[in-house]
Specification:
Layout lengths: L6 E8 L7 H22 L6 E3 L3 E6 L5 H14 L6 E8 L15 H11 L6 E5 L4 H14 L4 H12 L5 H8 L3 H10 L2 H13 L9
Parallel strand pairs: 4-5
Antiparallel strand pairs: 1-3, 1-4, 2-3
Helix pairs in contact: 1-2, 2-5, 4-8, 5-6, 5-7, 6-7
Length: 215
């Protein structure tokens, strides 16, 4: 199956939303949606951010190799926003039968089915991936990113978010946007594991998602 025929779908839901206030839920969903809108520029297509069941959400990505970057940017946006709660992320890779309207409520295809099933089976984890061409290497990359990214502080997430949105930006550029010193930006990015993230994203993007799904 050629890579061009594959897409990725990320399905998520807010963690412990029943214990959260309505304001926290709305701020969390809004932060995720804002990241999806920002990703439209990076991926050159509409992610069709769709909210469902109050605390659930879903996005569509034309190119599965961008799924890790999208996930990390959405997580960074969430953590960088005050008074939000965490979300789980399940990436599904596969073909799309129908995208439907702007909301993904009537979309269909293996990528959607795999993403939903992966979220249902995610257990105590917060980030997972499955589907066509997903090998143990991609699983390991995602697991590493989960371990690092879910430990980001709000200041670290703010810096990582700006870097992911503009990878060519210098530390001085980020410092100007945040109103802090370059040294402070350097400390935030280092503490957030930027070198490891760069390697993980590069390896993930270089992988050809054209093999059969692993059992």
């Amino acid at each position: 199956m050629p890579k061009a025929s594959l897409s990725a779908v990320i399905t998520g839901d807010l963690i412990a939303s029943r214990k959260a206030s309505a304001a926290q839920i709305e701020r969390s969903i809004n932060a995720l949606q804002a990241a999806a809108i920002a990703l439209k520029t990076l991926t050159d297509h509409n992610l069709h951010f769709t909210r469902f069941r109050g605390d659930g959400w879903q996005v569509y990505l034309q190119d599965p190799s961008t799924a890790l970057t999208a996930t990390l940017l959405m997580l960074a946006s969430l953590k960088a926003t005050e008074n939000t709660i965490e979300s789980r992320f399940a990436i599904g890779v596969g073909p799309i039968t129908a995208l439907g309207a702007t909301p993904l409520s009537d979309a269909s295809g293996a990528a959607f089915e795999t993403s939903g099933a992966t979220l249902d089976a995610i257990g105590k984890n917060k980030l997972d991936i499955a589907g066509v061409g997903v090998t143990p290497s991609q699983k390991a990359i995602v697991t590493l990113c989960e371990h690092i990214a879910f430990g980001w502080t709000a200041p670290q997430a703010q810096a990582i978010k700006l870097w992911l949105m503009a990878p060519a930006a210098t530390q001085d550029d980020i410092a100007t946007q945040l109103g802090i010193s370059r040294q402070a930006v350097q400390l935030r990015l280092a503490g957030a594991g930027k070198p490891a993230m760069m390697a993980a994203i590069a390896a993930f993007r270089a992988h050809p998602f054209d093999a059969e799904p692993t059992p």
